[in-house]
Amino acid sequence: MTTAIIADDEDLPRKELRRMLNKIWPELEILAECEHGAQALEAIHQEEPDIAFLDIRMPGMTGLDVAHAVKGRCHAVFTTAYDSYAIDAFSAGAIDYLLKPVSEIRLQEAVTRLKERLSSKQPVADVSQLMQELDKRLKSAATERIRWISASVGDTIKMFSIEKILFFSSDEKYTRVVCTDDEAHVRKPLKEIMDGLDPEQFWQVHRGTVVRADAIAKAHRDEMGKYTVELRGTSEKLKVSQAYAWRFKPM
């Protein structure tokens, strides 16, 4: 029997991929669903799957990092929401990817290629060159990082330097932007804002919350093992979802 794991830090894409795989490839056994890269790495070592479906953009350890760390142990298929500038980094057919939201037609194509590779016992593709090319493209895109956030408040336009923002939180159709002495709402979803943030400077701690890493004063863990963080410059306490709790575990 062919086996696989799925790794994605978002619940809905992970569950939807599993649903489509169950439909397209019912004999495929999903051994584990992982919420972050470290968990995926552990699952690959423990379960030894034939295939790993890995989201490229996971916090901390990315899907590419996982594939590189387990080089040669299983075939990797990357899921990504990146635009074409990153998609072009994938070599034709050697390493597969699925652009989110994943369509059944595209998944069927990937499954067909995987079955061919497994039946012919092709060696697992080396991701080193892909990592170098993608890293080069992402560094090039990094020059377009957000420096200012502008928010309309009545007849006034407020300007927030990215260096002064403590955290962003999703608020229905808006994103709340919070500084030490001010805040506002912008008409832009958090996911789009995150594309322009430096992931080393801003950490996602919840599906709807991104915080400035150097503003974190402390993290508290309750009796259920759930974390909340306190930030310097605000009295608000922010919840940390289980998917990102690994950031705060003692070294």
Care to give the gist of this entry?
It is built from seven helices and 15 strands.
Entry keywords:
2 domains; 7 helices; five-stranded antiparallel β-sheet; Rossmann fold; OB fold (Dihydrolipoamide Acetyltransferase, E2P); five-stranded parallel β-sheet; 251 residues; elongated; 31% strand; alpha/beta; 15 strands
General description of the model:
By secondary structure, this protein is an alpha/beta fold. The protein is 29% helix and 31% strand. The chain folds into 2 domains: 3-142, Response regulator (Rossmann fold), CATH 3.40.50.2300; 148-248, LytTr DNA-binding domain (OB fold (Dihydrolipoamide Acetyltransferase, E2P)), CATH 2.40.50. It contains 7 helices and 15 strands. The strands form 4 sheets. It has a 5-stranded parallel β-sheet with strand order 2-1-3-4-5, sandwiched between helices. A 5-stranded antiparallel β-sheet has the order 10-9-8-12-11, with no helix packed on it. A 3-stranded antiparallel β-sheet has the order 13-14-15, with no helix packed on it. Strand 13 and strand 14 (227-231) form a beta hairpin.
